[in-house]
Amino acid sequence: MQQTDTVVELADVHFAWPGSAAVALPGLRLGRGERVFLRGPSGSGKSTLLNLLAGVLRAQSGTVRVLGQDLTLLPGAARDRFRADHLGIVFQLFNLIPYLSVVENVCLPCRFSTQRRARAVRTSHDVATEARRLLGELDLPQALQHRPVTALSVGQQQRVAAARALIGAPELLLADEPTSALDADRRAAFLDLLFRQCEREGTTLLFASHDGGLAARFDRCVDLAQRAADPATRTGADRGLAAAA
């Protein structure tokens, strides 16, 4: 994998769901350490873009380059390994494992990636210690850290999901509507915590949400709905976004 200050680059990407015609997606470039807000209503293509960047979906054509690696050239198993080593993901529904404790959930990425494990150990004495450090930084009380995640509130589970995504200092963090279940005060507090951790690790953040009120807190905003609606910029790529999500 080549070293580059460009963490994400999408160019001339076409994607098709089974049984549908391929549609074009907008170009995108993210620099190292950037915090970018991806805005758009349901159906605008946010989740499709994130899944392409995560290597969960594979484009039919074009370039999906993350940290210098074109994911369209990798087979499925190699994309899975790349995602485990280099990406953290915060899902809208968190996707925590209900029968594991809080700390065990946070440690999971290090079980699948020796690179993430090595980075976690460099920061702390061992992976569990690093998990507890992150949970403390995210203001989750120590008394809760060995409980099952099902015993936590929604806001607390969200912090666990963020700690799991951040452990092992991934270079790219993808967040898909992670604040949709929170009120305004809790959204603001969560963003403060997330930004602080990304800045500490130099992690690039792509944060997708339909809530445009959050956009001002980011370095810049990519608005998928605006791209699709603006007659001056609307292209076949933009018109296809609704079909892609």
How many angstroms separate the termini? Answer: 30 Å
Radius of gyration: 18 Å
Helix content bin: 25-40%
CATH class of the domain at 33-55 and 75-219: Alpha Beta
| Envelope shape | globular
Tell me what the CATH architecture of the domain at 33-55 and 75-219 is: 3-Layer(aba) Sandwich
CATH topology of the domain at 33-55 and 75-219: Rossmann fold
Helix-strand sequence: EEEEHEEHEHHHHEHEEHHH
Largest sheet: 5 strands, antiparallel
Average residue pLDDT: 87
User: Number of helical segments?
Assistant: 10
Q: Tell me the β content.
A: 15-25%
Structural class: alpha/beta
Total beta-strand segments: 10
Q: Quick one: CATH superfamily of the domain at 33-55 and 75-219? A: P-loop containing nucleotide triphosphate hydrolases
Low-confidence stretches are: 228-245
Protein described:
- The chain has a domain at 33-55 and 75-219: P-loop containing nucleotide triphosphate hydrolases (Rossmann fold, 3-Layer(aba) Sandwich), CATH 3.40.50.
- It has 245 residues and is of the alpha/beta class.
- The relative contact order is 0.21.
- It has 10 helices and 10 strands.
- Strands 1, 2, 3, 5 and 6 form a 5-stranded antiparallel sheet that branches.
- The protein starts with 5 loop residues before the first strand and ends with a helix.
- The radius of gyration is 18 Å and the shape is globular.
- Helices cover 40% and strands 20% of the residues.
- The protein has helices at residues 46-54, 76-86, 102-112, 114-123, 127-137, 154-166, 184-201, 224-229, 236-239, 241-244, and strands at 6-15, 23-25, 28-31, 35-39, 61-66, 69-70, 87-90, 172-176, 204-209, 220-223.
